[in-house]
Design brief:
It is built from twelve helices and 14 strands. It is α/β, with parallel strands linked by helices. The protein has a single domain, classed as 3-Layer(aba) Sandwich (UDP-N-acetylmuramoyl-L-alanine:D-glutamate ligase), CATH 3.40.1190.20. Strands 1, 4, 5, 8, 9, 10, 11, 12, 13 and 14 form a ten-stranded mixed beta sheet that branches. Strands 3-2-6-7 form a four-stranded mixed beta sheet. β11 and β12 form a beta hairpin. α10 (about 305-320) runs antiparallel to α11.
Amino acid sequence: MSLLELKPTEECRYDLVALGEVMLRLDPGDGRIATTRSFAASEGGGEYNVARGLKRCFGLRTGIVTALADNPVGRLIEDLIYQGGVTRTHLDWLPYDGVGRGVRNGLNFTERGFGVRAALGCSDRGHSAASAMRPGDVDWERIFGEEGARWFHCGGVFCALGPGTAELAREAMEAAHRHGTVVSYDLNFRPSLWKASGGTEAAAAVNRGLVEHVNVLLGNEEDFSAGLGYSLEGLDEHLLELETAVYERLLGEVMADNPHLALTAATLRQARSASVNDWSGVCRTQAAFHIGPSYPGLEIFDRVGGGDSFASGLIYGLLQGFEVERALAYGIAHGALAMTTPGDTSMATLAEVERLVAGGSARVIR
């Protein structure tokens, strides 16, 4: 019996549909936000990054459900979505008042960090169009019933944005299950997003309610503790070997509390510096705990989006029907490769992922 009951590819327009905000990322390159005079522009967003990675690296059919303010910045984000190859499954264009008092488009300023200087993110996303989305805004019956999707993905970033976003995610999950679509959720806890709306207690309450509708749950140590309310007592911040033992207990508790879950997965990252991380991942099914390949001393160019690329690699493997160990290895390898290039989104290729999974080195390819 397979881990997940997946709808046949030929019955669906989409392999995956994601619900989330797409922001404009502004990157000072080798400089700093506070001192640069130029920024490189790209698009990004936790849920969108998963859909884009599945499209551009793995060649699957993906779509995004989101909203943008109708102004030139919104049109730039739309153009970047076009370049990313992700279909606009549902895109609400909300009227712009000329100033942004009503709705606007989210901006994300991101420094990469280097050595002892950590990466730095400065979000400017209040009152964004995506945060204004509410239940009833999206025709889920069309998406999951008429067009069809094998997988639906959302996360804790979107669900923290506004008063109606978590309920919209719940509405989507319920519709997905009615039509046999697998649901994944990345806890993706961000303290800044929850600070004004109840903090960690509110985040845990919202996430616990949504996890009831999830098949595949993703996160890291902060996500499971602050974002879901589990204790990480005994977690060692420096040794991956000890961390895997703690995660075996932790993910076991999560699975026991949520017997409907098919799989829970976690990234393992130890930051020796902003430029060098130890990187790995683990997952648990109801039957077994799995430890993935590790990349100690991984040199980091840009860490943002590594977890999203882990998610897309893992989801790709599960959609392909791989054994759990192999799917986990694809997630870890894709996350590692994504952190070697700038921007939120993956620039890796399937051949590069498969080469790394197979044990290939960084020796020059000619």
